[in-house]
Write a structure and sequence with these properties.
The chain is of the alpha+beta class. Helices cover 44% and strands 25% of the residues. It is built from twelve helices and 33 strands. The chain has a seven-stranded mixed beta sheet with strand order 14-23-22-16-17-18-19, with no helix packed on it. Keywords: Membrane, Transmembrane, Transmembrane helix.
C-alpha cells in the first residue's frame, strides 16, 4: 500500500490537472464561440454592404452546422474527454518525476512496486524509498507542475472576446438579434427591420397611364414592342435614397445580356426609367441606399391583343335584289366597308388571344362588353353610353343580352349585331334600359375597336373600321331631244332618247310636263316602262318602238310654252321611293308656217355653206392644172427634181388637207339636212312630195358625194404623195386626180341646183306667208279702228 501522503499528493495532482483542463476548455469554448460570432457577424455585414441582400439561407445553415460541429468537437476533445480521462498513479508519478528531478525516481519506484510481494530486504528498501519520496514531496509545490502562461493567454483572449461581445450586446442589441435571426433562427428577411430604405417597383401601363403592380410572383406581362415605363417609389416611412440604379437581364434569342441604368428622380421619393421597344423578357433589380430586391422582378413579353380578321354576315334589304349574296361572307380587307342602307349585319372578329373585354367606340356611342374588374371573379356585363355631338354622355344604359352570344367559347372571337340605318338618331333617342339588337348605327360610322385581353393588356392602337352606308340614290336620267328644236308645232310628236339607271332597280318611269307658268307637273306613261331593271334604255332600237311625246292631245295654242322631262322612281320602300327627273326641255308652240320659215332660213344657211365648199373644191381643181407642168418637169428632168420636189410635196399635202376639211364640212351639211327632214316629220308639216324631194334631191346625192366621190378624190391625192416619194409617175397621178375632182364638182353642182330650186319654192312660200301675215295685221288694225270710232261716237251722244 502506498503511503497516505503519496496518495494525497497524487490525488491533489489529479484534481489540479482536471481543474486546468476545465478552465482551459471553458476558455477555449468561449474564445471560439466569440470568434465565430464576430467572424459570421462581419461576413454578414460585409456581404450586405456590397450586395444589400441577406446571406443565402443555405450558406447560413452551413455556417450554423459548422459552428455546432466545431464547438461540439472542441467541447468533446478539449473538455469532456479530457475531464473524463482516468489518471493512473504511475502516469501521475512519471509526470511529477519529470517536472521535479529532485524526486530522483523515488516516487515512481514507490508507485511501481505498490502491492508487490518482496523479501524482507527488498521491503525494507522500498519502505526507505517511500519515506524519502514523502519527504521530497513535502518540499515541492504541486501547482508548479503547470505552466500558467497558455491558460492565462487563452483566458485573456476569451475574456476580451466575451467582454467585447457583452458590451456589443448592450450597445447593439439589434445587431446581435439580427445575427441570431440570421444564423440561429434561419429567418429569410432578417435585415428588413434594420434597413433604412424600402422601394417598390410598378409599371406605368398604356393606354391611360395606368399604374400596374407586379403580381404575387413578381411577374408583369408587357405588350411586345411597346416602351416599358418603370416607376420606383420609396416607402413614406423610410428614408428616400439619393440614387436608384436599375439592373436588368435581357433574355434574347442569342443569349442573355446585362444592363444598368440610373433612374431619373421625379418628385420626392419617386424615380422613373423607360426602356424603349421591349421585345424580350427582362429580369429587374432595384438598388437604392441599402435596398435591393432579393428576387428579380420578371417582365414577360407577350403579344398585345389584335384583330386578325373581320367578316360581316349581311342581311340586305329585299328591294335591292341582293338576297342571293347573303350567304357570301363579306371580308373586310381594308379599314372600310360599304353596305346598302338598312342592311343588318353581324360583325365577326377573330383575335390572336383570349379577351377580357371589347370596347366599341364611335363619335356618338360607346359599347362595352366583357369583364371590367381585374379580379378573375369579376362578372361579364354589357353597357352602352350614348353621346351627344360634342362627345358628352347623354345616357348610360345596361344591356341585358347574354354575354355568351357575343363571345366564342374560348373568347378568341367576338361578334356583334348592327344595322346601318337612316333612323339611327331617332332610335338612340328612344332607347331605354331595354336595348334590343341589332344596334343601329348611322351612315359613315367610324368604329374604333379597343381590346382588353386576359393578360390585362390593352390594344396599343384601336382597330378602325369605317362602315359606309350607301344611300339608295335617286335614279340617274340622261336624256336628250332628237329630231326637234325648241320651236315646235301643236301637232308635233317629240322623240326623247336616253338612258335611266338606278343602284338597285327601277320601279317606274313617265313623262312629266308643265304648260306655261303652271307649276303642276302632269304625267304621261311611257310606251315601254321599266320592270326592275338597273339600266333602262329609252328608244331601244331592238324593240322597234320609240318613246314620243305627242302634243296633239294637249290642244296647245300658238305662243304657249311646254316644259317636258322624263321622270323615274326606284324600288326603295324603306327610305323612299326616290324620284328624279332628267333634263327639262322647253318648247314654244308656233304655227306650221312659222316653223317652215325658220327651217327655210336654216336651209339657206346650209346652201351658202355648201356653195363655199364647192368654191374651195373648184380652187383645188384649178391648182391641179397649174401643177401639171411642174410634175412633168419632175418626171423628165432629173436636174430640176430636187428643186421641184419640195414644191410638189407642199402642194399635195396642202391639197389633201383642204380636201379632207371640205369632206368633213360636207358630212356636217348632210347631217343637218337629215335633221331638217326629221323636224318636218316630227312636227307634222311634212308631205310625201316634200320628203321625196329632200330625200332624192339633196340627202341621197350628198350621201353619194360623202361616201364615194370624196373618198375617190382622197385616194388620188394619196397616190400623188406615194408617187412623189417613189420619184416616178407624178404627172400621171395628177392627171388621174383631175377626173375625180371633176366628178366632185359635177355632183356638187347638181346638189346646188336642187337647193336653189328648193329655195325658189321656199321663197314663194315665204312671200305668201308674209302676205298672209300682213293681211292678218291689216284686219286686226281695221277692227281696232272700228272699235275706237264706235267708242268715241257713243261718248259724244
Amino acid at each position: 500500500m502506498l503511503p497516505q501522503e503519496i496518495q494525497s499528493v497524487l490525488s491533489k495532482f489529479r484534481r489540479a490537472i482536471r481543474r486546468y483542463v476545465f478552465l482551459e476548455g471553458i476558455a477555449l469554448l468561449i474564445a471560439i464561440a466569440c470568434a465565430i460570432f464576430w467572424i459570421t457577424f462581419a461576413v454578414d455585414v460585409i456581404y450586405f454592404r456590397f450586395s444589400r441582400l441577406e446571406l443565402p439561407t443555405s450558406f447560413r445553415l452551413l455556417v450554423l452546422m459548422s459552428m455546432v460541429i466545431l464547438l461540439a468537437s472542441v467541447a468533446a476533445s478539449w473538455f469532456f474527454f479530457r475531464l473524463l480521462r482516468s489518471f493512473r498513479n504511475r502516469d501521475l508519478a512519471l509526470a511529477l518525476e519529470k517536472r521535479f528531478p529532485q524526486l530522483q525516481d523515488r516516487l515512481i519506484t514507490t508507485v511501481e512496486f505498490e502491492g508487490e510481494e518482496a523479501s524482507h530486504l527488498k521491503s525494507a528498501m522500498m519502505e526507505r524509498t517511500s519515506r524519502e519520496a514523502v519527504d521530497a514531496l513535502t518540499k515541492i509545490d504541486i501547482d508548479e507542475s503547470f505552466d500558467p502562461t497558455p491558460l492565462k493567454r487563452l483566458g485573456m483572449v476569451a475574456a476580451v472576446l466575451f467582454c467585447t461581445l457583452a458590451v456589443f450586446s448592450v450597445a447593439n442589441a439589434a445587431g446581435v438579434k439580427r445575427w441570431m435571426q440570421a444564423y440561429l433562427y434561419g429567418e429569410e428577411n432578417y435585415w428588413d427591420p434594420f434597413r433604412k430604405h424600402s422601394l417598390n417597383l410598378s409599371v406605368l401601363a398604356q393606354p391611360g397611364d395606368r399604374v400596374k403592380e407586379f403580381d404575387s410572383n413578381r411577374i408583369y406581362k408587357h405588350p411586345r414592342g411597346s416602351d416599358l415605363e418603370l416607376i420606383v417609389e420609396s416607402d413614406e416611412a423610410m428614408t428616400v435614397p439619393e440614387r436608384v440604379d436599375l439592373n436588368y437581364l435581357i433574355f434574347a434569342s442569342g443569349g442573355t445580356k446585362r444592363g444598368r441604368a440610373t433612374m431619373s428622380p421625379v418628385g420626392s421619393g419617386r424615380f422613373v426609367q423607360t426602356i424603349s421597344q421591349v421585345v424580350e423578357d427582362h429580369e429587374l433589380w432595384m438598388i437604392g441606399g441599402d435596398f435591393v430586391n432579393r428576387r428579380p422582378y420578371r417582365v414577360q413579353v407577350v403579344d398585345p391583343p389584335e384583330i386578325d380578321s373581320i367578316t360581316l354576315e349581311c342581311d340586305y334589304p329585299s328591294y335591292t335584289g341582293m338576297d342571293g349574296q347573303e350567304d357570301q361572307i363579306v371580308r373586310v380587307v381594308a379599314t372600310q366597308v360599304a353596305l346598302p342602307m338598312e342592311t343588318e349585319f353581324l360583325l365577326n372578329a377573330q383575335t390572336n388571344k383570349p379577351l377580357r373585354e371589347v370596347d366599341l367606340r364611335s363619335d356618338r356611342f360607346r359599347l362595352r362588353f366583357g369583364r371590367r374588374g381585374d379580379s378573375s371573379d369579376s362578372k361579364d356585363e354589357v353597357s352602352l353610353e350614348l353621346l351627344d355631338e360634342n362627345g358628352i354622355t347623354q345616357k348610360r344604359l345596361t344591356v341585358t343580352t347574354p354575354i355568351e352570344s357575343l363571345y366564342s367559347s374560348d373568347r378568341t372571337a367576338f361578334q356583334f349585331p348592327l344595322v346601318v340605318t337612316t333612323g339611327a338618331e331617332e332610335e338612340w333617342n328612344a332607347m331605354d334600359d331595354d336595348v334590343t339588337f341589332p344596334f343601329p348605327i348611322s351612315a359613315d360610322t367610324s368604329l374604333k375597336i379597343f381590346l382588353h385581353d386576359e393578360d390585362d393588356i390593352f390594344s396599343q392602337e384601336p382597330t378602325q373600321l369605317l362602315i359606309e352606308g350607301i344611300a339608295d340614290r335617286a335614279p340617274v336620267i340622261d336624256t336628250k331631244r332628237t329630231g326637234v328644236g325648241t320651236i315646235v308645232t301643236r301637232n308635233a310628236s317629240l322623240p326623247i332618247e336616253g338612258r335611266i339607271s338606278d343602284d338597285y332597280g327601277l320601279a317606274d318611269a313617265w313623262f312629266g310636263y308643265r304648260i306655261g307658268s303652271d307649276s303642276t307637273v302632269n304625267q304621261t306613261p311611257l310606251l315601254n316602262r321599266p320592270d326592275g331593271q338597273k339600266d333602262f334604255v329609252l328608244n331601244d332600237s331592238s324593240s322597234g318602238e320609240f318613246e314620243r311625246f305627242a302634243l296633239r292631245p294637249l290642244k296647245l295654242q300658238e305662243g304657249q310654252t311646254l316644259t317636258l322631262g322624263v321622270y323615274a322612281e326606284d324600288k326603295d320602300h324603306l327610305n323612299g321611293p326616290n324620284i328624279a327627273h332628267g333634263e327639262l326641255f322647253s318648247f314654244k308652240i308656233v304655227s306650221d308656217d312659222e316653223l317652215l320659215a325658220r327651217l327655210f332660213d336654216r336651209e339657206v344657211n346650209l346652201r351658202l355653206r355648201f356653195e363655199q365648199i364647192r368654191s374651195e373644191v373648184d380652187e383645188l381643181r384649178n391648182s391641179l392644172g397649174n401643177e401639171t407642168e411642174r410634175a412633168q418637169r419632175f418626171d423628165t428632168d432629173p436636174a430640176v427634181r430636187s428643186a421641184e420636189s419640195p414644191v410638189l410635196s407642199s402642194f399635195i399635202e396642202r391639197s389633201l388637207h383642204q380636201l379632207r376639211k371640205n369632206h368633213t364640212e360636207s358630212r356636217a351639211i348632210e347631217v343637218a339636212f337629215r335633221e331638217l327632214r326629221e323636224e318636218m316629220v316630227n312636227n307634222g308639216i311634212d308631205t310625201k312630195e316634200k320628203l321625196e324631194r329632200i330625200d332624192t334631191g339633196v340627202i341621197a346625192p350628198l350621201q353619194i358625194l360623202n361616201e364615194q366621190l370624196f373618198d375617190t378624190a382622197d385616194e388620188r391625192y394619196a397616190l400623188q404623195r406615194m408617187r412623189l416619194r417613189q420619184v416616178i409617175g407624178v404627172e400621171e397621178s395628177i392627171n388621174e386626180t383631175i377626173p375625180a375632182v371633176d366628178d366632185l364638182l359635177a355632183q356638187m353642182d347638181r346638189i346646188l341646183d336642187e337647193m336653189r330650186d328648193r329655195g325658189t319654192i321656199n321663197d314663194l312660200i315665204q312671200n305668201l306667208q308674209r302676205t298672209i301675215e300682213q293681211q292678218r295685221k291689216l284686219l286686226e288694225e281695221t277692227e281696232n279702228k272700228r272699235i275706237e270710232e264706235n267708242f268715241f261716237f257713243d261718248f259724244d251722244e
